[in-house]
Amino acid sequence: MGSLTTDLVGYYRSLQSVVLGLNGVPKQSQDGGVIATTGTTSETASTDRSEGTSVAQPVAVEIDTVQSETCTSDVSDELSRKLEDILNTYCSTLGGQAEETPELEEAEKCVNNEPLRNGVREIVCRELNGEIDKVVKAVTRVEDPRENGDVPDIKDQKKAPEKKKAKALGKEITLLMQTLNTLSTPEEKLAALCKKYADMLEEHRNAQKQMRLLQKKQTQIVHEKDHLRNEHSRAILARSKLESLCRELQRHNRTLKEEGVQRGREEEEKRKEITSHFQVTLNDIQVQMEHHNERNSLLRQENMELAEKLKKLIEQYELREEHIDKILKHKDLQQELVDAKLQQAQEMLKDAELKHQREKDYLLKETVETQRMCELMKQQEVHMKQQLSLYTEKFEDFQSTLSKSNEVFTTFKQEMEKMAKKIKKLEKETSMYRSRWESSNKALLDMAEEKTLRDKEFESLQVKIQRLEKLCRALQTERNDLNKRVHDLGVQLAQQAGDNKQDGKAEEEGAQSLNKVTQENPILF
């Protein structure tokens, strides 16, 4: 970018020299003399016309000079128009720089409003220097800061925050374990873990929001960078156009110099032929030459002043360039800070996912424990079935001993009462297990798979209850059979009462005892 600015300054100086050549400013030759331009020839021709000389050769000289002046004025107008078009197109690309537009308009007015001097438009305007200098400044604003300096390494900056994150993670784990150890029941631990999980989920969502905001900022910065690159490419195009324009100006200047030299030679030959006619006007010509020398000295002084102003503007431009470099470096540092924050948010997201996985493993362990409890319940159910089988065997023993004595019947009655108590206890245990199952179901609502397993267990328990009901029905049928047998025994005893009157009292006592038993335990009959 520094080479680009130096090239533009060189083009500006060449343009200034070309414009001065077009305006008729005399230049010193290598011998120290002054080369006469088209303006001096036109003035000499005008003096000849004022004196009233009626020579044919001076008239031809006047016609040639007028034609040459019109040609040079047309070419200078075309070149000035091209320069204005380039400046207008380049300044339109930099539409955001509102401070430069009024100065460019003043420069265009200065170029268009300059008077014609000897048929040639003078483009030596003081505001033109400031305009081209500002074009150079606008080009330097597109400079990429990474061309002048290297991007700093970020690996060293990443190590320190990673160590800090590892330490903070270890501290959080130890604090979590301490809080879990303080809790007594697994339900409280599960509630604490759920609360911790909810907090981590909120932190995760906040981190995602921050990450989206940072991504938006990053896209904005990338768009700004692309915009600056586009402006840089436009500046390069403007530079190429200025180069082509300078080449055309140089070619035109060379042609003008060659034409001026040829015309000077022709005029010198013509002057030698008509020296006798112009001896009277030599004094006037000398006065005019002195006037031109004074004018040349004034123009030289103006050129020196312009050169000093140009130096000052170049110094100001260098200071401005340093300030822009500092601003671009600051933007690069901000971009690095945004990248570091984005990486930190990603690491926090990974930590949250790890914690979520750990909590999931813990819940799976709890489900395994609940399954183990269900298996224990199944074993208890098998044990209860065994007890029921034992009770059935005892009931058969009771059926065999019922015919022997009433005392055995009373013992059977007592055993039946005990069975009723045990059944009540079993019902209480089943209600307790149901309450436990409901509590476990409430604790594991969030897990769909565990819910399905619990539903299956509930169905299995219902099947077991149905089996118990079937067993109760079977017992009722057996009870009815026993009632029938007891009734048959009563009938047989009544038949035997007629045969054995002596045993009537015993039968009456047996019947009374049976009635008492039926009244006390109507369920058995």
UniProtKB/TrEMBL annotation:
Compositional bias ranges of the Basic and acidic residues kind: 144-160
Low complexity: compositionally biased ranges: 36-45
Name of one Pfam family that matches: Taxilin
GO molecular function annotations of the record: syntaxin binding
Region (Disordered): 29-54, 144-163, 494-525
Coiled-coil spans in chain: 190-362, 409-485
Keywords: Coiled coil
Keyword Nucleotidyltransferase: no
Compositionally biased spans, kind Polar residues: 512-525
Source domain of life: Eukaryota
Family according to the record: Belongs to the taxilin family.
The name this protein goes by in its record: Taxilin alpha
